[in-house]
Amino acid sequence: MAKMTGGQAVVESLIAQGVTTVFGIVSVHNLHIFDALRDATEQGRIRFIGGRHEHALVCMADGYARATGTPGVLITSSGPGAADSVGALGESYHSSVPVLEITTDIEHDLVNKGHGSTHEPKDQLGMFASVTGWQSMAESVVDVPNQIAGAMEHLKTQHPRPAVVVIPTDLLGESADVEIIPARELPKAKAEQASVNRAAELLASAKSLVLWGGKGVMTSGASAELVELAELLGAPVVTGDGGKGAIPEDHPLALGSSLGGRLWGKNPLHEYIANCDVALVAGGSLPYRSTTGVGLKLPKQLIQVDIDPSMFGRNYPVEVGLAGDAKAVLRQLLDALSNREPSSSGHAEATDLRLKSQASVREQFPNELHMWEAIRGILPRNATIVFDSTMPVYCAERCFPAYEPLTYHLPHGWVSVGYGFAASLGMKAALPNRPVVCVTGDGGFQYNMQEIGTAVQYGLAPVVLIFNDSAWGSLKFHQDQSMGGRNFGVHLENPDFPKLAEAYAVDAVRVDNLDQLLWELQRALNSDRIQIIEVVIPNGLSNFR
Q: Considering just the CA atoms, what is the radius of gyration of the chain in Å?
């Protein structure tokens, strides 16, 4: 044990838990944390990246977590600072991203008493309840390491939804003898063996089988196991929300994205999936908006693997539910099928299905497909791409192939606008030596465009593509489709984006055709500073050439 302040206990606890980067904004309530951070950063024991708005901070931590598969951490302050983080935490919650927020509250003997202290919230833990999977408040300086260690273990072993630890501001300046808790080696949860055996029997006897890779494959690092299982069974693989890259999309058994509907277009894979007699969904929660909500049917013999058993049966009845970590459970299935010889039976079928899917995409998104194929051809195989909630993402889901895990990201939970740019900064903080490309719209970029300053100050260098149609493009699309083209509230008067970038001493260009875009993108990929490319699409992406 060592004598330290509550602020020092926060920083030492994070370091002991293996945290190497934190995002944050300084406040009068968290000054003691930042004082401790100063010492730790000067000693090279942790890195700090300061943002301009708490919404952006969460997106940065979220992006860091998605790029690394480990928790992203941010530090905010009580009242308005904490409240400003809630909207972005909702995205992390619904997209199952492990984010830890350390925030403050007012003096511990005044909490929730309504005396009118500075930045006093009303039931701050209650405010966080709808967007976090764990909420706790430290009761003393000695309790700080317990709460942080508990939150981190929760993030690593349970459904990876955000956690928040609240620390009353006066505790941060008080001193006590504190025991810092180191990170523990945590076993990956396995499924009940009888259920694994039943699932293995269904897989082995299936006449027509499809495997489905979801977000949980990414979170648990289970891509290799999914591919191994597919090759053993000779089973085609589709990917759902958050699952692109779970299998390389040029693998002979990869079919691509399962998404289809008004925004994603008609997808012939839906018919194939519906006609299979067995489906294994690995790490996919099967959200309504992209499954039952667009009419997707799944086989009655459905096997679902998820760390959270409450995901079973939400939108589809489950024949066998395997509650556990996707990597551990897929390994259990491989062990149960170990006497089986690898099969190539599904290769021909997968090739035929892939050709049908590509033909469907080419028919529905010919211009978009041409653009994404050209961009994919420039980007390295391991380049990371992150989208905002913007029109280009819908066709990219089926037009842009992902070849490695954790390289394709978008807000697929709340589908929140403003995510992409800030998240790209977190991803670049995690991946300084790999290309990170952000695709955003003119409206979404303006949610967090102030973070250009963060990029410059901390040397974060993503390439940012701003597709500018001077509108809330997806909402305009919906009005065109559902309201007979009666557009209202969707047109935007935008700044001159290159001049805005110039104010931050950032390189920015404007392009209005594909050849220019490809030229500038190739140039930008070789830069060690943030690059902004405004892509002018006054007539929409389908007419960009």
A: 24
CA 19 to chain centre: 19
For residue 363, count CB atoms less than 10 angstroms from its CB and return exposed for 0-12, middle for 13-18, buried for 19 or more: exposed
pTM of the model: 0.96
Q: How is residue 171 written in tokens?
A: 């505790």
Q: How far apart are the first and last CA of the chain?
A: 65
Give the 3-state DSSP-derived string for 211-259, with helices as H, strands as E and coil as C.
EEECHHHHHHCCHHHHHHHHHHHCCCEEECCCCCCCCCCCCCCEEEECC
Q: 3-class DSSP state for residue 466?
A: strand
Which residues on neighbouring strands pair with residue 49, listed in sequence order? 23
The secondary structure of 67-125 as a DSSP string is HHSS-EEEE--TTHHHHHHHHHHHHHHHTT--EEEEEEES-TTTTTS-S--TT--SSHH
| Cβ-based neighbours of 93, under 8 Å, separated by 6 or more | 130, 131, 132, 133, 161, 162, 413
**Rounded Cα–Cα distance for residues 86 and 77 (Å):** 12
Query: Which structure tokens are listed for 317?
Result: 């009845």
Kindly list the structural domains of the chain, giving each domain's residue range(s) and its CATH number in brackets, ordered by start. 2-178 (3.40.50.970), 193-351 (3.40.50.1220), 365-543 (3.40.50.970)
Instruction: List pLDDT tens digits, range 391-439.
Output: 899 899 999 999 999 999 999 878 889 999 999 999 999 999 999 999 9
The residues facing 211 across adjacent strands are: 237, 280
Instruction: Provide the sign of the torsion angle of the four alpha carbons 513, 516, 520, 522, taken in this order.
Output: positive
Beta carbons within 8 Å of 43's beta carbon, 6+ residues apart:
none
CB–CB of 100/136 below 8 Å? Answer: no
Residue where the block lists tokens 């539910």: 321
pLDDT in tens, 225-276: 999 999 999 999 999 999 999 999 999 999 999 999 888 899 999 999 999 9
Per DSSP, the three-state class of 418 is coil
> What letter would DSSP give residue 265?
B
338-387: per-residue pLDDT in tens? 998 888 888 899 999 999 999 999 999 999 999 999 999 999 999 999 99
Spatial distance between the Cα atoms of 361 and 266, rounded to a whole number of angstroms: 8
